[in-house]
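can u do me a favor
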């Protein structure tokens, strides 16, 4: 492929993309080049509006990202969507795989200064940065990927919280104690009880915090292992991750928080006494440089997208698909460990029961929460669809083909906006009747009809005698009928850096490492052996707030 620079020959000069001046040809965030792309070709939104393609790369759940995420000047271009999807996408100057420009090996003399460096621009990182900024600290966020949002951007089902205004409005009887109890039970009581309590206790105020920033979390649904409806998401049941990422990005931009994408922290720096004093960063274009800081917050996520590391801890998961974005490789955990941080529960890796077969697309648990059932290749139900993920995944893996069909009707479809996306991605088989659906997915029609009839009776009786499903929100009686073939996939890593309830990283000697904080999936202990659906976004916001607040106090000498 001819890279874009070549395709621009005769139409544009180097300075048209790079600008004039000797100093910086391209900054790591590639803002200058991008503003020039937009100047000639239009904004992402304008391009998205023009295209009629069914899968429109300029209008995606990734939101407003740089043109250079996909369009590369001097190496073959490559659509970032292909990190997770298998679309037949053509891109000018495109290659078959992502090619990376050789990272400059320049050792810049530059030393920047901040009060706090946050590693990772997912929900935990943004939350910590915004909280610390609002407490008066100068914050820099470092993100190795070409876009912000991390894995949080892909979060689907929602955010768990107890005793919220939205639950109260809907008359849902929940309590902090019940959320704590569900979290501990779901985690096989391997959780650190103090951390699980912090999660439950602060969950409602975290919903309030996000709401104040502009988020809509007014719809409340059910996830596996929860005793009541406590999973908060935008009205109509849209995906939570893309929504809150947009809100957090906007709030960070309003505050002028310095966010450096295409930049990787390669080392956390400590003084002779073991106090954290900054980081060493490798910028895609600027090379290696130092940021001096009084505190560092690790918020760089888990390692579900690192197959070698997953297989190291759990050989039985070798070769399994993942629902995670490509940056979820566990680098933050590694950096913290190299700085002396203790690790906890590393082999506790969550398999999500419903990833669309042959893909990396997560089918949110909210589909089951809103009424879908699981049937096997014989057309029969085999599990309580709202049990915890570990149990549900194990039940699917015990079926023929190690897969199952998630079956729902038009009523469920209408109840949850996210389902439209699965149709858009051509993941859904359909039929005008249950028998038509059975033919489409090649399961015995009599068996599927009997399974749905028996489930509907359980809904009418408010009692699922056979599988003890605790919540039966609606019967499946409204044509059309739909099915998605699903298989379990690596979804979440419960282990990570050991922290205190104040989000301080603990060293191997059991003492706090001064100046080092961590929040989000890269920490261990909150979820024990198995995380409940909806507890991840809750954790990122609550512990992100705590890390930001405490790091700011320490950096500002309060
Ligand atoms: O918290 C999660 O992982 C979650 C809610 C996933 C999902 O099924 O939507």
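np, heres the sequence
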């Amino acid at each position: 492929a001819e890279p874009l620079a070549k395709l621009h020959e005769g139409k544009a000069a180097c300075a048209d993309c790079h600008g004039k001046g000797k100093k910086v040809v391209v900054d790591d965030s590639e803002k200058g080049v991008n503003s020039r792309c937009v100047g000639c070709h239009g904004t992402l939104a304008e391009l998205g509006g023009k295209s009629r393609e069914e899968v429109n790369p300029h209008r995606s759940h990734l939101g407003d990202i740089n043109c250079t995420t996909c369009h590369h000047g001097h190496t073959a271009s490559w659509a970032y969507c292909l990190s997770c999807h298998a679309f037949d996408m053509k891109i000018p100057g495109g290659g078959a795989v992502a090619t990376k420009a050789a990272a400059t090996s320049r050792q810049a003399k530059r030393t920047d200064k901040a009060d706090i460096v946050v590693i990772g621009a997912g929900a935990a990182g943004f939350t910590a940065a915004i909280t610390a900024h609002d407490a008066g600290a100068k914050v820099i966020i470092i993100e190795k990927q070409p876009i912000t949002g991390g894995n949080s951007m892909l979060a689907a089902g929602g955010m768990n919280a107890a005793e919220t205004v939205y639950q109260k409005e809907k008359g849902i009887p929940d309590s902090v104690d019940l959320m704590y109890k569900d979290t501990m039970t779901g985690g096989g009581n391997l959780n650190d009880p103090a951390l699980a309590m912090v999660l439950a206790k602060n969950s409602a105020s975290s919903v309030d915090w996000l709401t104040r920033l502009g988020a809509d979390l007014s719809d409340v649904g059910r996830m596996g292992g929860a005793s009541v409806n406590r999973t908060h998401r935008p009205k109509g049941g849209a995906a939570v991750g893309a929504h809150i990422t947009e809100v957090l990005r906007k709030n960070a931009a309003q505050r002028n928080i310095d966010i450096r994408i295409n930049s990787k922290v390669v080392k956390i720096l400590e003084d002779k006494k073991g106090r954290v004093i900054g980081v060493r960063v490798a910028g895609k274009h600027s090379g290696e440089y130092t940021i001096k800081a009084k505190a560092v917050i690790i918020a760089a996520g888990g390692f579900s997208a690192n197959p070698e590391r997953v297989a190291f801890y759990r050989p039985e998961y070798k070769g399994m698909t993942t629902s995670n974005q490509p940056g979820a490789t566990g680098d933050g955990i590694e950096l913290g460990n190299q700085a002396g941080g203790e690790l906890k529960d590393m082999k506790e890796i969550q398999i999500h029961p419903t990833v669309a077969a042959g893909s990396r697309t997560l089918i949110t648990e909210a589909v089951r929460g809103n009424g879908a059932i699981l049937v096997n290749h014989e057309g029969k139900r085999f599990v309580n669809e709202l049990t915890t993920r570990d149990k549900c995944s194990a039940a699917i893996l015990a079926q023929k083909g190690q897969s199952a069909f998630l079956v729902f009707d038009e009523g469920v479809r209408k109840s949850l906006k996210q389902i439209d996306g699965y149709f858009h991605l051509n993941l859904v088989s359909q039929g005008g009747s249950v028998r038509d659906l059975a033919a489409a997915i090649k399961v015995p029609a009599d068996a599927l009809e009997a399974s749905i009839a028996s489930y509907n009776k359980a809904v009418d009786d408010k009692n699922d005698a056979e599988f003890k499903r605790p919540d039966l929100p609606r019967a499946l009686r409204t044509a059309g009928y739909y099915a998605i073939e699903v298989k379990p996939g690596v979804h979440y890593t419960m282990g990570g850096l050991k922290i205190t309830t104040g989000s301080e990283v603990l060293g191997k000697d059991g003492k706090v490492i001064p100046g080092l904080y961590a929040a989000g999936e890269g920490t261990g202990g909150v979820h024990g052996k198995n995380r409940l659906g909806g507890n991840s976004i809750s954790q990122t916001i609550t512990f992100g707030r705590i890390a930001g607040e405490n790091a700011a106090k320490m950096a500002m000498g309060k």
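The first strand starts at residue 107 and ends at 113. hope that helps!!
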